[in-house]
Design goal:
By secondary structure, the protein is of the alpha/beta class. It folds into 2 domains: about 5-70 and about 105-160 and about 260-330, FAD/NAD(P)-binding domain; about 165-260, D-Amino Acid Oxidase, Chain A, domain 2, CATH 3.30.9.30. Helix content is about 30%, strand content about 30%. The protein has 10 helices and 18 strands. The strands form 4 sheets. The protein has a 7-stranded mixed sheet. A hairpin with a 3-residue loop joins strand 13 (about 185-190) and strand 14 (about 190-200). Helix 8 packs antiparallel against helix 9 (about 310-330). The longest helix is centred in the C-terminal third of the chain and has 19 residues, at about 310-330. It is globular. Pfam families: FAD_binding_3. It comes from Adineta ricciae (Rotifer). InterPro entries: FAD-bd (IPR002938), FAD/NAD-bd_sf (IPR036188), FAD_aromatic-hydroxylase (IPR051704). GO terms for molecular function: FAD binding.
């Protein structure tokens, strides 16, 4: 039986995978380049099978007690007039808002607390070298002493990508009474979007989201200060609550920017190394399926590793079972990023 497994990445997929592997009796190590669990991040959704897996892990009640209690989403114009509204439990309506909405950092913290007594976590370090032998994988770390593992499972984010020309930024801003308990979505001319999602449950923050379709990635090699400066140029005349959002962005300490992208690969494993979550099959942030895909992928991969003596059979079965689910999760409408960020109002 495979007993010594390394996971790279302590976001959502990594700790979920670690939980199930440890439950199956394996010795699990998680390495994370950050110095601690990252508590920042946007509001994320957990849907369908992901909720059921959380229940099986015994953390669904904890998660529900940490949700934002978002009531739905409102699409507004520059004067904050509501053009359309979709509550969480809209009967027969579009599923814009999930039953479980939670700040990403809070879910990551819950998963870490639920696993840290049975899993070895190494923070502030990263893999710098991998040698895949016939009977083991030799790992070189930046700081930790080199070690051997039976398998290495990569769950630390998006690598090579098929690109969508949308860049989005996330950060928290002070809550104001006008934020209420609904998410608000505003489209400005020029394929720009501003969304505000209150954290709820008495928290004094609102999660801000800025997105824009552009013909080239002007942010790729910029530091945070330059990224913020570019966003000021791009959103300065956007209207609605742009002045408030941009002003608060300058003071935010949890700002990050990413490219909206999907990752599609022909295979998710090579030798004794396998990928999961965004590292293997990122469905794109606009799909609202990233968290659920990470949770389901971790559950399936752990189960197949536990129930196959040969890791090659385990990885093959993992792909066979999961790929139809991933294909469906990645099936965006043609031109979806542009639809979400129209040229005009």
């Amino acid at each position: 039986m495979l007993k010594n497994i390394l996971i790279s990445g302590a976001g959502i997929a990594g700790p979920t995978l670690a939980f199930w592997l440890a439950r199956y009796g394996m010795r699990v190590t998680v390495v994370e380049r950050a110095s601690k669990i990252r508590t920042e991040g946007q509001t994320i959704d957990v849907r369908g099978a992901g909720i059921e897996i959380m229940r099986k892990m015994g953390i669904d009640k904890i998660i529900r007690n940490s949700t934002t209690e978002e009531e739905g989403i409102k699409f507004v114009d520059g004067d904050n007039h509501i053009k359309a509204a979709f509550p969480v439990h809209a009967v027969g309506g579009p599923d814009f808002v999930s039953e479980i909405e939670i700040v990403r950092g809070e879910l990551a913290t819950i998963l870490y607390e639920h696993t840290r007594n049975n899993v070895e976590y190494i923070f502030g370090d990263k893999i710098t070298g991998i040698v895949d032998r016939d009977d083991r994988v030799q790992i070189k770390f930046a700081k930790t002493t080199d070690r051997d593992f039976d398998l290495v499972l990569i769950a630390d984010g998006l690598g090579s990508r098929t690109r969508e020309l949308v860049n989005s930024s996330y950060f928290s801003i002070p809550y104001e009474e006008s934020d209420g308990t609904w998410a608000r979505w505003y489209n400005a001319p020029g394929r720009r979007c501003i969304a505000l999602r209150p954290d709820g449950r008495g928290r004094q923050t609102t999660r801000a989201y800025l997105a824009i379709c552009i013909s080239e990635n002007i942010f790729e090699k910029s530091d945070v200060d330059n990224q913020k400066a570019e966003l000021h140029k791009l959103f300065g005349d956007a209207g609605w609550e742009a002045p408030r959002v941009l002003s608060a962005m300058d003071r935010s300490t949890d700002f990050y920017l990413q490219e909206v992208a999907q990752l599609k690969m022909n295979t998710w494993s090579k030798g004794r190394i396998a990928l999961l979550g965004d590292a293997g099959y990122c469905p794109s942030p606009i799909s609202d399926m990233g968290t659920t895909v990470a949770i389901v992928g971790a559950y399936v991969l752990a189960g197949e590793i536990a129930h196959h003596k040969d890791y090659k059979d385990a990885f093959a079965s993992y792909e066979t079972i999961l790929r139809p689910f991933i294909t469906k999760a990645q099936a965006l409408l043609p031109g979806a990023p542009q639809i979400a960020n129209p040229q005009t109002q």
